[in-house]
């Protein structure tokens, strides 16, 4: 005669053998696509930038959809310290007071931050079209695809040269076009960057989908 404990074990075994039905295995269908997610990571990363005018973020993803590097535009780290307040953030004409002589771009930082990961054949998501200097690094690192969110100055020399570099290296270039109503999540700035609206919390942004697709 089975004891109470044995009866309970028998019931558990019976439950374990219950077949999985289509109804019981339904999944959530409203999840965001990978490209939406990775551009969202790049946008969130951009918010770490201390640049008062332009915030750019980048995210490197391997063929298995694993993030292997992220970065944002900022000044060089010296002695493992952030030195954003040690360099100029203006675009002054004086040759030593122009930020472009010092700042490390988001794409550069994402490549440097790969922490030993192999980025051959990876995809780079960036909120702004890469300049010619970053494109040189992209080519040399073995990245094979660049997905960008915006390019407001395609005819400017550094971006025209970048396009030639990437195309000559047979790197796939794709523009990431927002879809859906983003007015509540993003605001367009006049400084060549798209950023999350100040009133929106980061988790809220991810919850509401980061509606992008390539």
Automatic annotation (TrEMBL):
Family: Belongs to the cytidine and deoxycytidylate deaminase family.
InterPro entries: APOBEC/CMP_deaminase_Zn-bd, CMP_dCMP_dom, Cytidine_deaminase-like, dCMP_deaminase-rel, Deoxycytidylate_deaminase_dom
Upper classification of the organism: Eukaryota, Metazoa, Spiralia, Lophotrochozoa, Mollusca
Domain annotation CMP/dCMP-type deaminase: ranges: 33-165
Cofactor(s), by name: Zn(2+)
UniProt keyword annotations, A-Z: Hydrolase, Metal-binding, Nucleotide biosynthesis, Zinc
Originating species: Sinanodonta woodiana (Chinese pond mussel)
CDD domains in UniProt: deoxycytidylate_deaminase
GO MF, any single term: dCMP deaminase activity
BP terms from Gene Ontology: nucleotide biosynthetic process
Domain of life, source organism: Eukaryota
EC numbers: 3.5.4.12
Disordered: annotated span: 1-28
Protein name (Swiss-Prot/TrEMBL): dCMP deaminase
Pfam hit, one: dCMP_cyt_deam_1
């Amino acid at each position: 005669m089975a004891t109470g404990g044995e009866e309970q074990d028998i019931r558990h075994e019976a439950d374990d053998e219950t077949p999985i039905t289509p109804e019981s295995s339904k999944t959530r269908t409203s999840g965001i696509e990978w490209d939406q997610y990775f551009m969202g990571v790049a946008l969130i990363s951009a918010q770490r930038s201390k640049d008062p005018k332009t915030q750019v973020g980048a995210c490197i993803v391997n063929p298995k959809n694993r993030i292997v590097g992220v970065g944002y535009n900022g000044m060089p780290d010296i002695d493992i310290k952030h030195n954003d307040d040690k360099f100029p953030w203006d675009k002054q004409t004086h040759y030593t007071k122009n930020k472009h002589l010092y700042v490390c771009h988001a794409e550069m930082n994402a490549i440097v931050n790969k922490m030993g990961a192999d980025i051959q054949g990876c995809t780079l998501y960036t909120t702004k079209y890469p300049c010619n200097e970053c494109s040189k690094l992209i080519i040399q690192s073995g990245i094979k695809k660049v997905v960008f969110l915006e390019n407001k100055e395609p005819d400017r020399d550094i971006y025209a040269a970048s396009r030639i570099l990437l195309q000559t290296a047979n790197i796939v270039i794709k523009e990431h076009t927002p879809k859906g109503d983003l007015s509540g999540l993003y605001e367009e700035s006049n400084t060549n960057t798209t950023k999350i609206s100040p009133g929106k919390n980061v988790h809220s942004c991810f919850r509401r989908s980061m509606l992008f697709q390539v």
